[in-house]
Amino acid sequence: MLREDVALAPMTTIGIGGRARHFAEITTTEALAAGAQWARARGEALFVIGGGSNIIVSDRGFDGLVLRLSIRGVEHSVNAGGVVISAGAGEEWEPLVENCVKRGWAGFECLSGIPGRVGATPIQNVGAYGQETRDTMISLEAFDLVEDKVVNITAEECDFGYRTSRFKNRDRGRFVITRVSYRLSPDGAPTIRYPELERYLEMSGGARTVTDVRAAVLALRRRKAMVIDPLDSDSRSVGSFFVNPTVSVQEFEAVKSRAGIVSDMPAFPVGENEIKLSAGWLIERSGIERGHILGNVGISTKHALAIVNRGGGSASEVIKLKELIQKRVLDRFGIRLKPEPVFVGFDQDLEP
Length: 352
Prior knowledge:
CATH class of the largest domain: Alpha Beta
Helix content: 10-25%
CATH architecture of the largest domain: 2-Layer Sandwich
């Protein structure tokens, strides 16, 4: 049912943003197609929202039609290659992960505690603690807004990269993902690649089941307020606000030169000639500490990568803090941090 003048802030994890001119909850692909056609016929802008965990809505809201994707349903089948999970894009991600881990299926355990819905996982190749969507995804179903039809896209066709895919780049705004299929491993070994996770497991006794890894990941995320908790104001955010930058080996030498004498700079080899750096480390070493306040928003007291709504925060304050952080890191290290969230309803594209 189409509604008018609907508040969007309650549909986001950061709790910030204005109102949608028109809004509808979508539970079927047919309804999605009808909504897209309705907007096109009236010349209205269209935006599709899921769990609201990775978006910043402008203070003036969205002057168009917002469709909230709530297509549900989870199916699984077992074959020689493992367990195939097919989930509607509107399924909440964390309950799906929890259920799969309880069954002993490996492949999702490091992605525990991530807010949002299934449909978002391929868009930015959601990942954490050494696992990414591309590790398990087989294919997805999507509605093509350009050709006005349902299409199937394989994982190989998604152009996955670090926190990115074709859906964030060349095909941005073209497809609305409606269903995603993954392959997990029954009784498989958990993924333990991330040094912080490895250390935590060793200190906890060294147990290595998917259940143990999930528990460890949840504990680590809670330390950083990266698990949604109504009682913890530090979790009122979009999670990590900036992508960890990747630089060439040559660029890394220049960054180290700018940094001066440091022994604790996190750096992880990626491929043959690239180094991934810690955005959080760069932010703190640029002079912006955890707990930094700007009006009604600020930096989490637990994690330098999270911009939080301290209560009554506005999108304009978030943008001011974002720009301050980017300037400080650029001036100090020569690196421009790239934000992770999608910016909705702004005059211009705020992503560099």
